[in-house]
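Take a look at this chain, C-alpha cells included, and explain the fold to me:
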Amino acid sequence: MHPDLAVKRVLLMLVIGVLALSARSEPAPESPAPRLMPVVGTVRKVLVRDEDTLLDVAYEHRLGFDNVARLNPDVDAWIPVAGTVVDLPTAVVLPDAEHTGLVLNVPEMRLYDFSVEPMEVFAAAIGDMADPSLLGDFRIGAKREDPVWHVPASIREEKPELPASVPSGPDNPLGSRWMTIGKTSYGIHGTNVRWSIGRMATHGCIRLYEDEVQRLYERIPRGTRIQLLYEPFKWGVEGDDIVLEAHPDPYGLRSDRLAEALRVPRALGLLSELDLERVWRVVDEARGVPARVGRLPLPPDPSTTSTPTS
C-alpha cells in the first residue's frame, strides 16, 4: 500500500473513533435532525466548440463557471481543445432546508426556487472574501426594475473614479432587476458581466444571469421567504445509494472539512455504511456533483427473527 494511503486510512479511523465517542457523549441537538435529501437531474455531457472557453459553455447552459471548471479539472478552462467532452453539473442533491420560497446555498453558488413546480435552480455569483454574502432567514423586500446603483462609500473608496450613482443601462452592474434581501442593503440582481456568474465576484449581493433574474423577478412577490445557507457538504440518497455532493468552503468557515462532512452520516448512524476512502476523495476534490459513497443498510430479514412463545 502506498504510504500516503496508509496515513489517510489511519487518519480516517481516528476521525471515526472520535466521532463515535462524541456521538455517545453529546446531547441531542436542538436543531432539526439532518436528512438524506433526494437527487434531482443528471450529469450531462457536451462537446466544446471551436474557440469556446468553459465560460462560454457555462453561459450557454446557464451554469456557474466554477462549477463547470471544478467538474472538469483536466480541461483547460481558457483554451479547451475543440471536440473535448465536458461534463455539466446538472445533477444536484437538494439542500437540507425547508423547501419553500427561495433557498440559496452559498458554497455551491446555486439559488433554488421552490415557489414553482418543478422547482428551478439558478447559477449565482456570491460575495468575495472581503464582502461575504449574507447567511440566515429573510424575506424578499423592495423590488425595482431598471435600478439605479447608488455606489456605497466603501466601494468608492476602493474605486474613486466611480460616480455617486450609476443610472440604469448597460454600464449598471445591477442589471435590469433588483430584489432586496430583507431590510438590508443587499439584494438579488442581474448583471452586465455575465462571466461573473458562478464565482465569488460581488460585494455581498447575489447575481444571476439577466434572462433568469427577469424570469424570477416576475414570479417572486415581496414577502417571499429566502433561506441563505452554508452547506458545503450535501448528503443524499439515490435508490439504495448514499451520495455526497461536496463543494469548496469559500469563506473558510469549516476548519476540519472531513469531520464536518461526516457530521450528517454520524447523526444518522450511517458511518459504518460508507466507503471512507471514497468520502475522503469526494471531500478533497469538491467536484460539486453527487457521488456514490455508500449504500443504505438492508432492512432486517423477518425470516431470521423469532417470535417469543408464552
About this structure: Residues 18-30 have pLDDT under 50 and may be disordered. The chain has eight helices and 19 strands. The radius of gyration is 22 Å.
